[in-house]
Amino acid sequence: MRPFAPRPTTPTAAERVRSILAAAHSMSVVSDGTSTEVRRLDGTGAMGHFHLHPPFEGTPGAQTTMRVPVRLELTDIAPTPVRDRLRARVTVTGLLSAPYDAESTESTCLEFGQAVLESADGRDYVTLHTLQAAPLDPIATSEASMLTHLVDDHSELVPLLLRLIHPHPEKGMVRALPVAMDRYGLTLRLEYSRTHHDVRLPFKTAVTDINQAGPQIHALLTTARRLSHTGNLLA
After folding, report:
1. Among 42, 48, 122, 203, whose CB has the most other CB atoms within 10 angstroms?
2. Is residue 180 domain-resident?
């Protein structure tokens, strides 16, 4: 009998990189000593602008076209007005078969080198194989609108979600806001006068379709309402 494998409650580094690439609205392309800001991603994310290929594997001398080193730099910024909004940085390195053309409307082929994810958890290196194998989070491209909707239109629900945190937040907390959401759960940022820290509220099951996100959030709220804790957490 196989040992029980706990269900994941946080995305892997490869999943995070893929989500950032999919949801990006802008990026910096560094090539030939020039940095170009690309802002016309048109909702397709970075991978709608670049097409990733495995490293060239051929016989020595078969690659006759000069290849140009390139680096894609992306930042993952929290959509809500939390303290320290930078959530992660992603750098993708590789080679182009021709100098980068910022005016091209065609997807640019990029021979993949590696992807690096830098976050509060440290630095992770992601290969093309693990990146392509990682499932695309169905919430990734809707996360920003969903979180801003929660903060702008349903801010009264955030204190309710605090009931799910164990142990309860320390005294002196001045604010709590959602800072991230992915297929596995919601993350709240608890802010104090001189510091802050994040708390994960996992969903009961991972979201496999965007239409499941709403019911999962409602399930968290239903659980929170059932709890007996009613103290003033912001006192």
Report:
1. 203
2. yes
Residues 41 and 124 in one domain: yes
Domain edge (last residue) among 133, 166, 188: 133
DSSP the chain: -PPPPPPP-S--HHHHHHHHHHH-S-EEEEETTEEEEE---TTS-GGGTEEEEPPP--STT---S--EEEEEEEEEE-SS--SS-EEEEEEEEEEESS---TT--SPEEEEEEEEEEEETTEEEEE-HHHHHHSPPPTTTTTHHHHHHHHHHH-TTHHHHHGGG-SSPPPTT--EEEEEEEETTEEEEEEE-SS-EEEEEEE-SS--SSGGGHHHHHHHHHHHHHHS---S-TT-
What's the pLDDT tens digit per position in 66-93? Answer: 789 999 999 999 999 999 999 999 999 9
Domain membership of residue 25 (yes or no) is: yes
